[in-house]
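Q: what does this look like with adenosine-5'-diphosphate bound?
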Amino acid sequence: MSTTASAGQTGRASSPAQKALQKLGLSRDIDLALHLPLRYEDETRLTRLSEARDGETVQIEARVVRSEITLRPRRQLKVQVDDGSDTCVLRFLNFYPSHQKTLTEGAVVRVRGEIRGGFLGREMVHPSFKLAGGELPQALTPVYPTVAQLPQAYLRKAVLGGLSRADLSETLPPEAWPVALGPMWTLRQALAFLHQPSPQVSLAELEDRSHPAWQRLKAEELLAQQLSQLEARRARDAMRSPALVPASQGSSPLSGLRQRLLKGLPFELTGAQQRVEAQIAADLWREQPMHRLLQGDVGSGKTVVAALAALRCIEAGWQCALMAPTEILAEQHFRKLVVWLEPLGLHTAWLTGSQKAAERRAALAAIESGQASLVVGTHAVIEGKVQFSRLALAIIDEQHRFGVAQRLALRSKMTQTESGQALEPHLLMMSATPIPRTLAMSYYADLDVSTIDELPPGRSPIVTKVVNQSRRDEIIARIRDQIGQGRQVYWVCPLIEESEALDLRNATETHAELQQALPGQQVALLHSRMPTADKKAVMAAFADGQTAVLVSTTVIEVGVDVPNASLMVIEHAERFGLSQLHQLRGRVGRGAAASACVLMFSTGDAPRLGDTARARLQAMAQTQDGFEIARRDLEIRGPGEFLGARQSGAPLLRFADLATDVQALQWARGLAPLMLERHPQLAHRHVQRWLGGRSEFVKA
Ligand code: ADP
Ligand code: MG
């Protein structure tokens, strides 16, 4: 049987094991060589039973003295072995005829497992075993990340094959290696070592990945990531966008729109809003497409900044599109923008999947003719039928809720041809989940980031309390009190996809409970399965202050802005992620009234909350700073999950760890541009080597 999975063979996998290799993305020799062990087993030594301590994992060689199947307390195979120094029982709860065949009386076997002191003497449960004989291996035995259908032994052979065939010539200029990372190992040395380390090595250094061989691999990986992102950025810089320079003062009916909007606002921009607005303006003046992330905590005032960017685009005589992930959120934007833009004589079009055909036709016509200066909507904005007349700026709110493909669709479908030249729209992405610095450095090397790091004045802090579900009555009393003061309340029930029906029942029951507990008050229910029109009506009534309490599943998660709401209760808060809790909490504290958030938890059948749930709720109670929360979220979840598979579009790291490999990251960031400039061939080979075979990592 061939263990080769050479390049060019993709898609023609025949055996289940070969298919599994493909599934792991191990199609080229180099991919196999870069598939590194999770841990190691030491099979280089034999331990005498008399010297093995309880709890230790050891390898012994011993003779089978008895082998029997017992039926009590349950069916199992018990094999007694003796190595001359002591005896021990091997116990198998699952076993096959092959077990009995090898472990037959008189056979000498090599067994590896954890020694335990059992009631009836020492034992190993489900050890691995084989007939004794043959040399002991010289190196530690690697254990690789794998999937079903791909046995370790097969994978090991395949990896060693890949390692022997792969081109491992150096891509790093040797003078580039930083002293801080320790001695430099060549790639070949590092890989040979990590796949077959000598037993003398410190296992600790291997496990915490501080060994020089690991340092080399992690640095390589980070460099590949930085290079590929830089390449993406260069590619984008080669594209052209319209430079959105305002028409000279007075010469156009469109000049001075921004000034007029600012004059009409009931507030002044914060310093942070002014700063990011200027950063965006500088981008829009250029002929290269903007690719900017505008991040700002919930309530920091991103919408008005987006509106100002849109006006810059419109002043220059172009169209702007704004897309939001949900209809409720898109509609909020629409309503606000209409109020801001209509007095300036500008037409805003509305596009969503649920609108009536006639309304939609009218919107499409206004977009195509250029009569609509701004288009606001959901995913409907990127659908095939939508034709812009002169699109130059696309704004995406809550960008992490869109997949890479959708972002691309937005860009490519809107590519405009002006006098034969392809033009790209400028792209402004907004997010209320601030990205911690190390992540931004690593994952967003091809993105410019603007941060609103200041809240508008006059916001009162939100007091956050973590309480047990058993104190529900107190909480309801609190709600009564708030309503008495003319305030409004959100009550959020979790939505777990696997059991939507159940969640719905929860929300419905809570709704009934609150209606009963608050006689004479309007208590409304909002959930994700409701028809859009109903959702809108419920939201509108709440925004108008007609409803006192809004019980909802997480459809209110983002963006909703009702300043009179002063209390938020989150039921089963332990089921929410940290960022999600923070987003939810941001729905209150938007007005001047003192606001509160109650995180109600239930431990279910468990005696207490699990550690991560506890850590999340504690973090929420301790801080209201979105950056701090994002940092803790990252700590609790790790970068992969934090970003979410859909969010990144950037290669996730397999080996390097952003929390500990900051030095290597900084080195890679510094080296990448130099390398692209001075050694473009090496840079290209390096990226191909690391990312070329992994289609899921190929840069969007
Ligand atoms: P987010 O960043 O979460 O999208 P919004 O844009 O919805 O925040 O703004 C939250 C609220 O703050 C809105 O009611 C908005 O009108 C108001 N706001 C925005 N900027 C300011 C400011 N500089 N001063 C006072 N209020 C502001
Ligand atoms: Mg918003």
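Residues 526 and 552 are 5 Å apart (CA to CA). Confidence is low (pLDDT under 50) at residues 1-11, 644-651, 695-700.
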